[in-house]
Amino acid sequence: MSREFPDWINPWLAAQGRRDFGGTMPLVRMPRLLEMVEDEGGEAEFRLSVSSDIDGRPELDLSVKAGLTLVCQASLKPYVENVERRTVLTVIAEEAEMALLPDSAEPVVVDEGRVALATLVEDELILGLPVVPRNPEFADVNFSSGELPEPEEDSGTRKPFAALGDLVGKQR
């Protein structure tokens, strides 16, 4: 794990110094994300630049990148979803300040004047996950037509739904 960052930052102090943070973070530090992925191993790469917006509020320019193992809902097999996101967050001290922000601003409310970098990275990765995980190999398959893709050559693995295709064919 590369570590060029603290666990918590004070965004106002970091903005004054126009600080940059970055490195890699293990996925096991992100409990909400772990509930959504198949494999707890691996890590996320991130880069955070802190500056101030025109009104003097801290802005967090965050880029994240990770290969996350999900279960394809078409094949029910694991695959790696490459997630890359970049966002700019405007720091506010309390939710009441949201009304003062422009519509285009993405707010983040700080906890006791500080923000956890792992939480920011985790949030962005969760937002980057597909609603329905689907391996790109099945992108052209129309499952609503009732036609199933030809199975790959078997390497000794069990195919629990192979008989289902035969049954559907016999009923028509």
UniProtKB/TrEMBL annotation:
Query: Key word Transport present in the record?
Result: no
Region span, Disordered: 142-172
Q: Which GO terms describe its cellular component?
A: cytosol
The family database entries (InterPro entries) matched by this protein are listed as: YceD, YceD_bac
BP terms from Gene Ontology = ribosome biogenesis
State whether keyword DNA-binding applies. yes
A molecular function GO annotation: DNA binding
Which of UniProt's keywords are assigned here? DNA-binding, Ribosome biogenesis
Q: Which family does it belong to?
A: Belongs to the DUF177 domain family.
Alphabetical list of PANTHER family matching this protein: LARGE RIBOSOMAL RNA SUBUNIT ACCUMULATION PROTEIN YCED
Function recorded in the entry = Plays a role in synthesis, processing and/or stability of 23S rRNA.
- Protein name (database record): Large ribosomal RNA subunit accumulation protein YceD
